[in-house]
Structure formats: structure tokens, C-alpha cells
Write a structure and sequence with these properties.
two-stranded antiparallel ribbon, 9 helices, mainly alpha
Length: 273
């Protein structure tokens, strides 16, 4: 497991960086769309195993907010994007309600996938079009993934008291603290390499917030997996599980980063590096 995690990270890390840094907007759009489509497919596979057409419908509906963020940059399309998911999912279960034992419950789960994955991921598209958009996305990935690694290894080494055993048996208080410390260290490194025009203390504070929100995202997916009786959302990434397993924290943290930047909560020195 440990070796597989490292090998997967060693392969995917440079690939994602290359697309983000040199792939331009089109490369980023392709990467984001493919990643979100895989997450959506894994999510709906947990809810509707063996029913391909519903999973396909969920992928299409969940991608609408993402496409809107890419083709119409700016927050004005967030409301139409999430409403499109609400309307399409409601229409699906109105038309097919006789097929399901509890259509109202399944409708809620269906819409949660659009909101959690599609809507949250659309903020990555919005971040890309901000000044220093590439750097901010890399900052988010570095901070959140470093926090995941810190929580995993500190939890294994020192974790005794469970963080939330009713949701996830493996997560510990020590791991959560270790993850936040790793968030701070990673944020300082990202500041030094990518964002020297930003005031470092505001980035360190932002990293703690992103890390805490990311841990909530991780636990949120754990609730879903436990509810549907699966260990991982998929098996595409050896040592990690599915794509959704790998980016659940990033999805939850992306809106926080976007709005922190949009509202000017991150201080700048007023000049580029």
C-alpha cells in the first residue's frame, strides 16, 4: 500500500504539474473535465451500481457547472450552473419515479453529487482565470495533498485517539493535527516557489483554513462510502483508491480559496515577484 501510494504520486504529480503549467487553458480544461467526469462516475457507481444510464446522466449533469466556469469565467454563472443540476436531477426522478423504491431519497443523493463534485470543482475553473491562476491552483494542490500525507503518516506513527470513529475508523486526532502542520509547511514552500508577491502570513493562515476544510471534505466522502458500504470510490489509482478518494479534500477546499481571493482576503505586497 505504502509503495503503491508513492509510485502513484510520483507518476501523477509531474503529469498534473506539466498540464497545469504548460498546457494552457485548453489543457487545464481537458484535465479538469476528465477528472470531474471520473469523480462523478465513481460517485454515481456507488449509488446506482449496474445502472449505466443513470451514472451517465449524472456525469453529464455534474459537468454543466464545470463547463460554465470554463466558457464563462466569473461567479455570475455559479447560480445557473447549480440550478441546472437541481432542475435536471428533479426532472430525472419525476419521469422515472415508478422505477425506484424511494425516489425522493435517491434524488437527494443524486443532487449531492452535482453539488459536491460538479459545483465545487467549477471553482477550480474560476481560479484558473484569476491573476496568477496557475500558481493558485498549484498552491491549493500542494497544500491539500501535503496535508493528506501529513495526516496519513503522523496518524500511523502517533495516532491513538480517534478523530471521528463513527465516520472513519482510520482518522485520528494526531493525524488531523499533523495534517494541519503539513499544510503550513507546504504553504511556506509554495509561497517561496510560486507566490512571492503575496504576504506570507496571510498564506499560512489560509493554508490552515484550507487544510481544515479539506479534512471536512475527506470525512464527508467517508460518510458517503460508509453509507453505501464501499471502502473506496474506485480502484483507478493504486494505493489511493479512486479519483474521488484522492481529490475529495481539494473539492471542498476549492470554493474557499476562490472566494478568499475574490474577496481580497489574501494580502499582497502589490508587485509581482
Amino acid at each position: 500500500m505504502h509503495t503503491q501510494r508513492l509510485l502513484t504520486a510520483a507518476v501523477l504529480g509531474p503529469l498534473v504539474f506539466a498540464v497545469l503549467w504548460w498546457g494552457g487553458v485548453s489543457g487545464f480544461a481537458l484535465l479538469l473535465s476528465a477528472g470531474v467526469a471520473l469523480c462523478l462516475y465513481e460517485y454515481y457507481s456507488m449509488i446506482f451500481p449496474g445502472i449505466f444510464w443513470v451514472r451517465l446522466f449524472g456525469v453529464v449533469a455534474g459537468l454543466i457547472p464545470v463547463f460554465l466556469s470554463l466558457f464563462y469565467p466569473g461567479p455570475r454563472m455559479l447560480v445557473p450552473g447549480i440550478f441546472s443540476g437541481l432542475f435536471s436531477s428533479a426532472l430525472l426522478f419525476i419521469v422515472t419515479h415508478e422505477r425506484w423504491k424511494e425516489p425522493h431519497t435517491l434524488w437527494v443523493f443524486f443532487f449531492v453529487g452535482i453539488g459536491y463534485i460538479g459545483f465545487c470543482a467549477s471553482h477550480l475553473g474560476l481560479i484558473r482565470f484569476l491573476p496568477l491562476g496557475r500558481q493558485w491552483i498549484l498552491f491549493l494542490l500542494i497544500v491539500v495533498f501535503s496535508g493528506d500525507a501529513g495526516a496519513y503518516y503522523v496518524g500511523r506513527a502517533l495516532g491513538k485517539r480517534k478523530l471521528c470513529p463513527g465516520v472513519s475508523k482510520g482518522k485520528t486526532v494526531a493525524g488531523a493535527v499533523g495534517g494541519l502542520l503539513a499544510n503550513v509547511v507546504a504553504a511556506f514552500l509554495a509561497w517561496f516557489l510560486l507566490l512571492r508577491s503575496m504576504e506570507p502570513w496571510s498564506l499560512l493562515f489560509l493554508a490552515v483554513v484550507l487544510g481544515a476544510v479539506g479534512q471536512v471534505g475527506d470525512l464527508t466522502e467517508s460518510i458517503l462510502k460508509r453509507g453505501f458500504g464501499v471502502k473506496d470510490s474506485g480502484s483507478l489509482l493504486p494505493g489511493h483508491g479512486g479519483v474521488f478518494d484522492r481529490v475529495d479534500a481539494v473539492l471542498m477546499a476549492a470554493p474557499v480559496l476562490y472566494w478568499a481571493l475574490e474577496l481580497g482576503l489574501v494580502k499582497s505586497f502589490g508587485k509581482l515577484p
